[in-house]
Design a protein that fits this description.
The structure holds 2 protein chains of 2 kinds.
Chain A: E1 5-7, E2 10-14, E3 19-24, E4 31-37, E5 44-49, E6 55-58, E7 61-65, E8 71-76, E9 85-92, E10 98-100, E11 104-109
Parallel strand pairs in A: 2-11
Antiparallel strand pairs in A: 1-3, 3-8, 4-5, 4-9, 6-7, 7-8, 9-10, 9-11
Chain B: E1 4-7, E2 10-13, E3 19-25, E4 32-38, E5 44-51, E6 57-58, E7 67-73, E8 76-81, E9 90-97, E10 105-106, E11 110-114
Parallel strand pairs in B: 2-11
Antiparallel strand pairs in B: 1-3, 3-8, 4-5, 4-9, 5-6, 7-8, 9-10, 9-11
Classes of the chains: A mainly beta, B mainly beta.
Chain lengths: 110, 115
């Protein structure tokens, strides 16, 4: 069974602060996706990373894929209350099946 | 991005009855659809993977006779919870991806409450 460890599980910060969420595995991913989910809704795809060392930016969000394709991080700059939600990393090890991390519940206080 | 819909968004049923949840890909053909279950404040747990025209592959611990999955077309998969019990109450989410695609696009989820 492939496992994805996501940290931290919970994060409560003030508006304007920066934060980083980590996703780690002992196995190599063929690709990794980051999702954001709000209560009562399905996850929304933020980004897909495929190449080791890849960095992608989405406004104030920066996604990195580790060189060895075993880890990834999501960095949010100057967090806003609208960033509040559950952030999920999900890796593809083989085929097209996703293995999800445990999620990071982020709360940004105004 | 691709759009996936689910129906109903919420359903309340009595113990012992069956409930069907539909998952549709609206603007692409979904060769594979996935069904997940999510408990409060937890991550998603994969229940089964279904490919159009073939039997679903269930994850370990998921009863295939209880959670019936049908993927009759490239745009529709259904999950039927048979003889529902209160412990089946949960948030059920489907996702889909097209042929050759690595991204999965998720439906908005269905909140099932069994009384």
């Amino acid at each position: 069974t492939q496992l994805l460890e996501q940290s931290p599980q919970f994060l409560s910060i003030q508006e304007g602060e920066n934060l980083t969420v980590y996703c780690n595995s002992s196995s190599v991913f063929s690709s990794l996706q980051w999702y954001r989910q709000e209560p009562g809704e399905g996850p929304v795809l933020l980004v897909t990373v495929v190449t080791g060392g890849e960095v992608k930016k989405l406004k104030r969000l920066t996604f990195q894929f580790g060189d060895a394709r075993k880890d990834s991080s999501l960095h949010i700059t100057a967090a806003q209350p609208g960033d509040t939600g559950l952030y999920l990393c999900a890796g593809v090890f083989a085929g097209n099946m996703l293995t999800f991390g445990g999620g990071t519940r982020l709360m940004v206080k105004p | 991005g691709a759009v996936v819909s689910q129906h109903p968004s919420r359903v309340i049923c009595k113990s012992g009855t069956s409930v069907k949840i539909e998952c549709r890909s609206l603007d692409f053909q979904a060769t594979t659809m996935f069904w997940y279950r999510q408990f409060p404040k937890k991550s998603l747990m994969l229940m089964a993977t279904s490919n159009e025209g073939s039997k679903a592959t269930y994850e370990q611990g998921v009863e295939k006779d209880k959670f019936l999955i049908n993927h009759a077309s490239l745009t529709l998969s259904t999950l039927t919870v048979t003889s529902a019990h209160p412990e089946d109450s949960s948030f059920y989410i489907c996702s889909a991806n097209g042929q050759g695609a690595i991204e999965q696009y998720f439906g908005p989820g269905t909140r099932l409450t069994v009384t």
